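User: Need the bound-state model for S-adenosylmethionine:
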Amino acid sequence: MPQGHIARKRFGQNFLSDAGIIRQIIDAIAPKPGEAIVEIGPGLGAITVPLQAACGHLHVVEIDRDLIAKLKQTWSPAQITIHEGDALKFDFGTLPAPLRVVGNLPYNISTPLLFHFASYAERVRDMTFMLQKEVVDRMVAEPDSEAYGRLSVMLQYRFNMASLFDVPPTAFKPAPKVTSAIVYMQPRPASECSCRDEGLLGKIVTAAFGQRRKTLRNTLRDHVSDADFAALGINPQARGETLSVQDYVRITDYLVEHKTDLAG
Ligand code: SAM
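Assistant: Bound-state model below.
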């Protein structure tokens, strides 16, 4: 790829430059010819080049016009389909399924991006992302740990996830301030994501983690009474971080079944 690009902070541009790490990422993805793969933020092509070499054709979504111009100079449409614009607004439903999604994601928008991808989970085979290690730790965190929160519950509801390996700041140019990590995400079968109202699940989880030091009786007072907690077998004195993903699904399903007056 042509270089000479000045990294733009507002687009979260830290370009991978460590050949060993690039190889590890490609090995983790293990791309095969003919697979439908989309890369978010190809940048200067650090992982685009080996990905395209392995799978033949690749979709990419890139927001930076200068980088798009460079991509167009380098690749033919037969090799890469370039989707110009914001990945947060991109309709991944227009790409072939089952889709493999990969990317060294811009860290400043990683959480909204993850939720955007989650809305396409049914069309996705798997996703392999580089993110801030702190975010990956939150995604895969278990109940009763400091990192466990809304991101853990909402993503674990939809995906099986594993943190694969860490990547030091020295692997990038310019070097970010934080350590990164590679996370692998595979959508759970639809039969396992059977919460009866996912919108309400989101509201309950957001409320439960809104004030971490408070009890569930306090944080969920608008939704769940002491009688409901008793029927669910959940201690209202407990705090949000003690409940499993399944507990949150049980609370939501119980409310859908027993309450007709749920505040929108
Ligand atoms: N993949 C390259 C690498 O590993 O060296 C670049 C990674 S850099 C961390 C993030 C990339 O995402 C940049 O190319 C940036 O321009 C692009 N980007 C930032 N925000 C974006 C958005 N909202 N939609 C699509 N691409 C975006």
